[in-house]
From TrEMBL:
It comes from Sphingobium agri. Belongs to the HrcA family. The keyword Nucleus does not apply. This is Heat-inducible transcription repressor HrcA. Residues 110-332 form the Heat-inducible transcription repressor HrcA C-terminal domain. It comes from the Bacteria.
Amino acid sequence: MAVTPVTELNERARDVFRLVVESYLGTGLPVGSRTISKIASLSLSPASIRNVMQDLEELGLLAAPHTSAGRMPTETGLRLFVDGMMQAAEPSPEERRAIEAGVAEGGPIEEALSAATAALSGLSACAGIVMVPKREPVMRQFGFVPLNDRQALAVLVGQDGSVENRVLDMPAGVTPGMLAEAANFMSARFSGMTLREAGDALQREMEGERTALQGAARELVARGIAVWSQDADDRPVLIVRGQAHLLDDGTAADLERVRQLLEQLEGKQEISRLLESALAGSATKIFIGSENKLFSLSGSSVIAAPYRGVDGRVVGVVGVIGPTRLNYARVIPMVDFTAQTLSRLMR
């Protein structure tokens, strides 16, 4: 459904709509016309407010859940409110200090990112999420250690001194001599390359029949490159903190939605793909409910902002995930400030 422009609502409709949304976001409960008449100086009777709310419902901006006389914003209505009517509130000095304190703890960058995400989660009462910059290792040395007749341990030593191991299924007919030959070939030929570069170089050599390796040894090299490259692509570097915040007092009657959301958080690959869509932007992005296929069942919202590295390029995304009933006016600037703080850390 197309979102009705704010300019197409008259002043009375805008005032009533804004009050319904703000009341709902604060309480999580449907809002009745009598409630609006009590909290607002609209000079309108409950009957007049009810008529306006009915008009807003026909526009697809409000909905009446079940048989309740109250109204609540639809996802379309929330999008209209966030994009055109919300007045954002800057993070307080206390909130800023809490976020900056986590970043300033020092240590490995992943620890600082985790601490900042935990702080953001606590302040927003949502689950905090951060996508860590993918660091493709530059190879220095490769090795194979036989485990049994069918498997070997592929050892990758990076230029930064890091060492990682993966279990590899060996092709038939591989001897200990072939393992040493393949390791020596890879160390000599691919040292100084990333895995992607090594894979491309190997493919060119194999297509041109220029590789010095043959048979099982060549297949072993190909499998060694493939297992590392596939692992790097399939393993989202995603930190999630504060899932317990999703189990608040308002979730008792909506446990199925929360269960769906927690399952989605466990499937980090899907969350990572969503966050990757924020990498291309320069500003905070808001995904509301079924606007994204991933959250069509749980009805969740994501607020995500990119942060930048030394050269000013976007290297990661930080944000929060929670129910659509978020305090958007408070949380959006908080996420944006966290992204700015991480950008300063990365420089």
